Amino acid sequence: MPEVQRRGHLWRHGAAALLVSMLWVSTLCVGAPPAAAALHVLHTPGYESPVRGDPDDLLMIAGTGFEATDRVVYQAMGEAPASHPHSIPASNTSDSGTAPIVQRNNPPYALTIRLPDEMAKGRAYRLWVVTAKGDWSEPMAINDPRPQWVTPSYVYSTADVAGLGRLLRVVGRNLAVSGPDEPLEIRLRGSPDKLSYTLTSRTVPGEPETVREYAATALLPNNITPGVYSVGVRRKGLGWVEIADQKLEVRRDPPELRTFSLDDPALGACRPDDSADDSACFARALEAARSAGGGIVSIPAGHWDLTTTTVNAGPVTEGFVVPDNVQLRGAGDKVSFIVRHGPVNPRRPDALLTLSGHNSVVGLSFSDDVRFESQEQSRPVIQLGTKPPLADEFKSGRWPLVEDVVISGNRFVHVGRVITDEPGRPLARLFITHNEFGAYYEALHLPGNTAVVWEPFQITDSVIRGNRFIPGSYLDLHLHQGTIASELGAAHHLDFSDNVADGSSTENLQNPDDPPGFRAAFFWNMNNSVEFMLVSANHIACSGDKDGDGEALGFDGNSNTYGFVGTPSITAAGRDWVTLSGKLLGEQAHRPVPANYYNGHWVQIVAGTGFGQTRKIVSYTQDPATSTVTLQITPAWDILPGGRGSRASVQRQHWQVLVVGNNIEHRSPPCHKSNLTGPNGGEISIWTPSADFVVAGNQQFDTDGILFTQGYSAPFCPNCGNGLAFQTALEIRDNRIEGEYDWSSDCGDAGIRGGFGASPTPESPPPVVGFGTSISHNFISHSDGPRGGGIDFVKTWFPGPPPGDWAFMENVLIFHNQVQDMEGPPPFAKCRIGQRERSGIRIEGQDNIRDSVLYRNRCERVTVPLFDTGLRTLKICPAGSRGNCECADAP
């Protein structure tokens, strides 16, 4: 009988049995820590375990049971799985050896090692921790290929999908190869016929080199047999690694559909370029295609005039509903034009087109003859999914997917919004490619609907690539808002790459004197978790010229939902479950939630044994008699959570998000630096809980740099929220940050900065909010944070309840960064935030940042190389360390 069932059986026999049961479970599954806890490490790939490292890099190993006499052994990986060596190697070579342990934290939840110079860069290795008694930990791997998902999720036998070419991308970690003579192999294996195709990765012209570490691209064969294929990769000398949770679908080429041309006399007497209303002909063409079981509605060259006045006469305002399997085709976005007419609907902004699913819109140009005056007026061109016809549909939870939609090769200019998900239906296999978007308010408005609590919002297996976004005229100084390029409320297998947000463009402004630029470029909120997402090779300019915070790439916790008030204690745990004290919240967004609402949320271990792990919830049960909740999770724990003071959080999060190779421009010119809120623009912000999040190889010029925020809030006032922004296994690597929006004023924030804070609630003190962050190999020039550090850790809210010396960040690794040109007098104290000097690395707080390790960070032309009020900060200063930020006084 599974442990969770056995436990439930015992608890049904009264109070005495309940007490015995709780003691038995505690001893078996959590228990008081023994004198010498068993050695275990986090080792499951993709779940807070080590990922990569080069010679002379620092690497954190998280676990439990560490002792002062432990050693770490490495061994090169081969094609076949291997057990640990029979003995500890006597010397270091490129094949095997030992890695020196440079730091052990307190409490002992982590070791930090330095990878030896003898190791080969990019080579895959296994690591073990070995005790003095000869006990070996579970193996961990670094630099090994880790394919996670594939995009697009389906292809045709011979045809193209959404203008992407016959290219397949495998997304994951450690996918780069050392040279063209050693390409990554990609294997497609079919079922049931066992067909197999082996592809080789190729270099994509113009793609940043960093992206190749995270996305391997291959050309598909001209013809593939339809079917479902597993996908695996192999690097020279290693075995095949399969993608575990996704398969590639190869579909038959789409059938030939009957065409219904808008100028067909059978549909009416409509002709282009005559300024007459073509709405009736368009409606007849849609109906004819629906009646035929599907078809193509062709819009020939010329200007066609549409209005929704008649079709939106009733209570539902969805414009022209495009039925399933009906496709809209223009002759090209430079020759086929649709112009929308008619006043803005006084009840709500209504869409021109509503796509039901299995639709495409290709080769058209759209514009609106209305001049918009407010966000409320900004009606969309395309709505994804129909609104529920009856109120009881909300109650019943019938909420089908909108799936298989292609919007490609179109031009949308002088429109209010372009694509919206106003009903909040979940989306799957949405392809938005090679379009030009010029929206007054927002081009892609897909945030989900917080009122829909019975059906998780999703944007699954989707591609948004190769689009150009230009700003519109919307500006609201009171709300600090302006035009946004895109807002997405969820992601799972989303490729968001090669897009351009050109805030320097003025071609879509309603008046020549309207302020240019964006309020923000690309923004994510959390109407569900954001998982398995690639954000790569996007080019963003002038994202803060309008107003507001000016994020270039913003990852926000807005709309996140929490399972508990605060972070409950852990009472028991087993291999794939954990029991928490307390009761799950029964309402979200002021609506009662269904019994399975928290399935798909994440549980994060924020204190105690197993600290730093996150796992997805697959099911749960509540026991009102004991006020406990038992969560079933996947995958199994590496380390059973629990122990004294153990705590957990249940919420959504950003997981396996890869923000790589993006270029962000905010210099003047081309930008105006005209933000009317303050000196804000071009920021990469992680204002959300995250795990295994990567920010790598990005370039930023005169921006607000990179921000990650960490904090805890328990309700302590009428308007004070409940929440936790917990960061674990965050990697910020190889970024180039040059200049900042406003060097002269203390109002400008830049560099790489980590904020922390917590509510002043002694009844609910803060847990650790950041664990195992790695900041390495970044170049930061003339760009500092709110207290003056190129790398700046600063308290941004309350320091928790008195005395304020809480541990907020544990085991930050800062190594091989170059910080330069941070000298001269402090900035003008316009915002009075306390910046008194320019510094290289700044660690603030009252012992709030603990067990950090600093190694070989170069400071050149920096007034104060290091300011440190952390606890137990380790500064490694080998011979010849002069010029290193942490070793300024070294000989």
Please explain how this structure is put together.
- The protein is mainly beta and 891 residues long.
- Among the domains are: 40-128, Sandwich (Immunoglobulin-like), CATH 2.60.40; 146-251, Sandwich (Immunoglobulin-like).
- 5% of the residues lie in helices and 41% in strands.
- The protein has a 27-stranded mixed beta sheet that branches. The chain has a 21-stranded parallel beta sheet that branches.
- Residues 1-35 have low confidence and may be disordered.
CATH architecture classification of the domain at 146-251: Sandwich
Regions with little confidence, pLDDT below 50 for 5+ residues: 1-35
Q: For the record, what CATH class of the domain at 146-251 applies? A: Mainly Beta
Which superfamily, in CATH terms, is the homologous superfamily of the domain at 146-251?
Immunoglobulins
Helix content: under 10%
**Which structural class best describes the helix and strand composition?**
mainly beta
Give the integer mean of the pLDDT values: 91
What name does CATH use for the topology of the domain at 146-251?
Immunoglobulin-like
Shape: globular
Distance N to C terminus: 65 Å
